[in-house]
Amino acid sequence: MPEETAPNPMPAPRNWWRDLRLALGFMTRLPVGAVDGDLAAASWAFPLAGLLVGGVAALIYGFAIDLGLSALLAAALAVASAMLLTGALHEDGLADFADGLGVRGGPVERLAAMRASGIGSFGTLALIFTVLLRVAAMAALTGPAGVGPALLSAHAGARALLPWAMHGQPRARADGLAVGAGQPARAVAIATLLIGLAILLLAAGPVRGTIAALAALLGLVILPLARRRLGGITGDVLGAVEQVAEIAILLALVATRSLVGR
């Protein structure tokens, strides 16, 4: 009788590196090279990709402050650097989703508007307001010591919601990014939420991190709206989830800045 081999509950070490490269290749414009793998299974690494994006933005902010630039200009440069690093992936999704919501008609017309090559007035306004909110939130925080943890928290925490948003949600189309990315297992989605929560607690402190984590859940409000207006989610919907959560985290950290150290 052949000897049975106990299943290995953890992937091989190289798989962790592969998953991180998959996440970075999907979330950023970094030259990680071609990586074969299951993006849904690798989605646990989304908050780690966000941690890198937030770290780069924080460095740009700190460098700008050291050069003598105002907090407002430094915040604008930090937002711009994050957008460049990600190729404005989530901002593009938010703009397309906003354009879809602004179209008269049913799901077919809304989905067609979201796939149009141009950007409409609703998408333009959404981008303007979201960029302004992020820049203003960072300018309201106290220097690099306040902005750095906030950027790490916002970028990692917001991306930690995406596997949950991808899990168990109907797709509005038979093709597209949301379909190609697949559906993470429930265990992966929950583990990713816990990773995001851990980063928030470490970066922002237990009290502020908890409040920011609760605020991030506002991003999930996008999901029932997308089901009702589009019939399901798309890649653009996922971008909108990330953007709403990112802004909610930043605003929560601004509102609780008097609780620094708690």
Shape: globular
Total count of helical runs of at least 4 residues: 14
Rg, nearest Å = 19 Å
Distance between the termini: 60 Å
Q: Major beta sheet, specifics?
A: none
Low-pLDDT runs: 1-14
Percent strand: under 5%
Mean pLDDT score, rounded? 89
Order of helices and strands: HHHHHHHHHHHHHH
Structural class: mainly alpha
Helix proportion: over 70%
| Structural domain tally | 1
Number of strands: 0
Characterization of the model:
71% of the residues lie in helices and 0% in strands. It is mostly helical and 262 residues long. It has one domain. The longest helix is centred in the N-terminal third of the chain and has 21 residues, at 46-66.
Task: Outline the fold blueprint.
Blueprint (H helix, E strand, L loop, with lengths): L12 H15 L11 H4 L3 H21 L4 H16 L2 H14 L4 H9 L5 H20 L2 H18 L1 H5 L10 H5 L4 H19 L1 H11 L5 H9 L4 H21 L7
Helix pairs in contact: 1-3, 3-4, 3-8, 3-11, 4-7, 5-6, 5-7, 5-14, 7-14, 8-11, 8-12, 8-14, 11-12, 12-14
Features:
14 helices, 262 residues, single chain
Give a nutshell description of this structure.
The protein is mainly alpha-helical. It has helices spanning 13-27, 39-42, 46-66, 71-86, 89-102, 107-115, 121-140, 143-160, 162-166, 177-181, 186-204, 206-216, 222-230, 235-255.
